[in-house]
């Protein structure tokens, strides 16, 4: 049973609304909703706060979670449906399905000439790895700028503000791996 289903079950048993759980736990309503709908798993800190609010232990919360299993997944190109066009200058495509159930999230980012991604900044503990497939990219991480060409890589703590800009004449492509997955 996914953790969101477990949280939902305990919340209903306690006859608590999402708003009530938000108030008691300090976990944002949107986050709780995403967790209960299995769109995100949450952090250990949020799990602890939810357990306190529901008057249960972490062991109670985790006992019905499926044991870790070894999986192999193939996702043919034609089956990939999670493509996000952020504007006419860049897009991102999920390279695996059900990424929130995994330990890393691989993404293909395509940036048109002169285009750039939006500035991002995640919570502490999230890391990003980039592999330049094609083009010339200027990656700004914190206050530093790094220039990447085909075959170059970059690894950094994603809590630093960062963005990627295509400084070449052709479309730039990056494989980005985020661990743990975040939305």
What is the structure about, briefly put?
This protein is 23% helix and 29% strand.
Structural account:
By secondary structure, this protein is α+β, with helices and mostly antiparallel strands. The chain has helices at residues 3-13, 18-25, 29-36, 44-54, 58-62, and strands spanning 83-87, 90-94, 105-111, 127-134, 137-141, 144-148, 153-157, 162-166, 172-179. The protein has a 6-stranded antiparallel sheet, with no helix packed on it. It has a 3-stranded antiparallel sheet with strand order 6-5-8, with no helix packed on it. Strand 5 (137-141) and strand 6 (144-148) form a beta hairpin. Helix 1 (3-13) crosses helix 3 (29-36) and helix 2 packs across helix 4 (44-54). The longest helix has 11 residues, at 3-13.
Our count of helices gives 5
Output the structural class.
alpha+beta
Query: What is the N-to-C order of secondary-structure elements (H for helix, E for strand)?
Result: HHHHHEEEEEEEEE
Beta-strand residue percentage: 25-35%
Describe the largest sheet.
6 strands, antiparallel
The span between the termini is: 22 Å
Low-confidence stretches: none
How confident is the prediction overall: mean pLDDT? 88
Number of strands: 9
Radius of gyration: 19 Å
Q: Strand order within the widest sheet?
A: 1-2-3-9-4-7
* Helix percent band: 10-25%
Tell the overall outline. elongated
